[in-house]
Amino acid sequence: MAKTRNEIRFLLNGSEKRLTEVGASDTLLDFLRLDCGLRGTKEGCAEGDCGACTVLVGRRHGAGLRYETVNACIRLLPSVDLCHVVTIEHLAGRDGPLHPVQQAMVDKHGSQCGFCTPGIVMSLYALWMETPRPEVGAIETALQGNLCRCTGYGPILAAAKAAADLGAPEADVLVREREAVRAQLAALDDGARVEVARGDDRAILPADADDLAAVLAEEPKATIVAGSTDVGLWITKFMRAISPAVFIGELADLKGIEVTDEAVTLGAGVTYSECESTIAEVFPHLAEFWGRIGGQQVRNMGTVGGNVANGSPIGDTPPVLIALGAEVTLRKGDERRAVALEDFFIAYGKQDRALGDFVESLRIPRPKPGVFHAAYKISKRRDEDISSVCGGFALELADGKVAAARLAFGGMAATPKRAPKAEAALVGRAWDAAAADAAAAALAEDFTPISDWRASKEYRMAAAQNLLRRLYLETQGGDRPARLVRA
Ligand SMILES: Cc1cc2nc3c(=O)[nH]c(=O)nc-3n(C[C@H](O)[C@H](O)[C@H](O)COP(=O)(O)OP(=O)(O)OC[C@H]3O[C@@H](n4cnc5c(N)ncnc54)[C@H](O)[C@@H]3O)c2cc1C
Ligand code: FES
Ligand code: FES
User: Fold this and answer.
1) 3-state secondary structure of 71
2) What pLDDT score was predicted for residue 96?
């Protein structure tokens, strides 16, 4: 067994922290505000939506150190082991000069009530460090997960553009001291399994994937926590106990991204942000779609593995990965089994995952030549919103006819699911508007969607049917080629 350490170690702004009494469900936000008195970081929604709680988490990445925005309200404290947490208080001392991003917000009137402002400053700070003179699109992406109720975004966009005139990132403490901080974090890392608790609320951070398998053999009912963008809400909204919880988000063994001529394989701990460029390169039809999953903070924390393992009928990646023919590898002890993703979802809340199994990786075959791929998300808001309906389609055409079709939907049934009747209505016939209409009609035999506060059943069915018509129109050329790629 790996050696065990009974404290989490991390850097908070300029100081080192070692904590022994830490519960699995302690949030980073409560720790900052209640234990450390760092009240610049605000609590708005406590569910990852508003961004008022945005802080930076720096973690070692290859030979470097990567700072990312995260939602402290759903980030769980044990998960910052061996990380550098940076809050708004680190930007400017109480009596010191404002940071260029803060000064730009003042100069451009980017703040009114100020409640959202620390979170917005942290998001713009992260952007400014990497891209001091950003285009509007990059600013909007950086702010996808930050809501402001009073200022209006015009002054905030102006501040984002003006910050570079007030100071260059080279002079910034997080840029200047990056190597030293990385070395400090490396020195804290003893390669041990970490076990901490607050009363009965226990957290385990395995040393590596083999140790994870061993922990789950001992504690098969433990809650696996990757990015906690789903699990965090179980705590803050449903007051659910998650102990004992096994934190896997930082396991290097689960962070692999392998690209071959046949497929892309993502380790279960790979976040949306970490694989974003690979996904856009190998599956260009997913480039825009990927940026519609959550907001930047959620994509920095959330994993594709967690999205699949969670098994939500409205998770965004299952339909598009099913259309691509993806498979999931599950591990228990040293045993591994691969399951086609479309077979993984058995019923609402029930996946083909036995106690003690964990998702190790996802294999996504490269698109084949001659196959059209498309991915569509319908939600009430463009950004930071869950789908009402989601569609992932693969259409193989030969001599103007449909040779094969994979049409997968989310939001239409209790699980993400293919549409066999609609697929059958297409295969073998000419690909024309009548074929798309026939497939749309057949969808009514495939699905009986439900009404909820996201969408009515009638809306869901009409939207799904229209996605098939849209697929047809977009295969005929049009003004949205980025959505549809002919491999
Ligand atoms: C504000 C906000 C916006 C969101 N927007 C979207 C959206 O647009 N689209 C969307 O699809 N989702 C969205 N989500 C949901 C969530 O971000 C995703 O489902 C995410 O992919 C979950 O990944 P995670 O790593 O955070 O999982 P976690 O929350 O850590 O875990 C989720 C579930 O998976 C299990 N699990 C995680 N990893 C493994 C593993 N390796 N093996 C076995 N079980 C595992 C956990 O036990 C848990 O049951 C949003 C969430 C928030 C808070
Ligand atoms: S408090 Fe709203 S995202 Fe955290
Ligand atoms: S300034 Fe009031 S919420 Fe943004």
Assistant:
1) strand
2) 80
Q: Is the CB of 151 under 6 A from ligand 3?
A: yes
How many angstroms does the Cα of residue 47 sit away from the middle of ligand 2? 6
Residue type, 261: D
Record the pTM. 0.96
216-230: pLDDT as tens digits: 999 999 999 999 999
Candidates 238, 159, 235; CA nearest to 203 is: 235
**440, 486, 483, 436: which is closest to 463 by C-alpha?**
440
What's the gap in Å between 439 CA and the centre of ligand 1? 32
184 in ligand 3 pocket by Cβ < 6 Å?
Answer: no
pLDDT at 478: 59
Would you state the structure tokens that stand for residue 69, as one six-digit string?
């925005």
* Residue 447 vs residues 20, 236, 322, 424: alpha-carbon distances, Å: 51, 33, 17, 14
DSSP 392-411: EEEEEEETTEEEEEEEEEES
Mean pLDDT of the chain: 95
E strand intervals along 191-299:
193-198, 201-205, 223-225, 245-247, 257-259, 263-267
Q: Does residue 94 surpass a pLDDT of 80?
A: no
- DSSP strand pairing (263-267 vs 327-332): unpaired
